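WARN retry 2 of 3 for item q-0093 after timeout on previous attempt; input resubmitted unchanged.
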Amino acid sequence: MKKNTTTKKTKIKYGAAERRLKICAVAVSLLFAALMLYPLIFAVSSAMKDNAKIYEVPPKLLPEKANSLALVIDYSGMEFADEEQMKDTMMQDNVLAMFGINYKLSDDSIMEISVYGVRDGKTLFYSRAHQMKLQLEKDYGIYAHSAVKKEVLIHGDRYTRACDSFGYEFDVNGLSRTAPAGSGMAHAFQTKVTEVLAEKYPLSGSLTTVGNKTNHLLNLESFKYYLQMPAYIYPKNEVIARFGFLTFVMNSILVIGFAMVSQVILCSVSAFVISRMLSRKAGNLVLLFFMGGMMIPFASIMLPQLIMYQKMGAYNNYAALLLPFLYPFGFYVYLYKGFFDQIPGSYFEAASLDGASPFYLYK
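OK item q-0093 returned
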């Protein structure tokens, strides 16, 4: 009886220790999984920050709140020759306000700017732009390689093309949109916005209201413009200008898919021949050829390979991307050879006696 009791106590003791060990193992695994995912989380978080916050020291894991500014510019009492001149003036003020604030207040996480043009209590003009859209036009688009000055922003037809790129609404009879009234300019951005526009980018109309709210979805909207970025960087390429980032995705799928299929077929066939159709001595010599190729640094053959493909006409086209994968990589040949070596040779001998061809044996 005493022996059975001792045995039960021992089992309970070891069972509790085993549970603690499992809990500890799971906790350590989760910890290391979190540490491994941290770079990915930080990269995604950085992509949602504005340009100034990306280089902030010390870096922050989470992006700051996304500010959305709504500017109300009043044109009451102003005389215009016609409807076209009124729209033209509002478009100029729209471009000056958006680019001026985005450039001068880049440290304030202003992710969206909306401009309302009002006259006699009616909203006649509306335009909205995301911070990333403004940055794309400044770095690669209409204002690429240009200073962000008033004379540059409204020079020629640049401001009209910028408004067309952002999108805008104009109706002399009034829009259905209602300009924000709120508390006027009684908030954190009142001094900054008024000083920037008054000193550097004076408007034709009168700035009456600067509304501010936070919208965290604006951080996610940044990814939309990352997908459009290649079209801005390579505007002369028709395919990239049309499909944007999807062009690079399709290129990657095509190249990776071709590499997988070609390497599986070529490496497995080479390994089968080495393992089953050559003598041991000849097979080792051929395998040594493939393994020796692994020891040559790619940097030493990169330039000769480029010159060779260029003379073959495989330059700036898909052939240059696909041809390198028509050579069996030595590491994969070695792996496949190990697999074929593990299969009993009697299977192949029996199949050969029954009339199986080498291709059938390979399959």
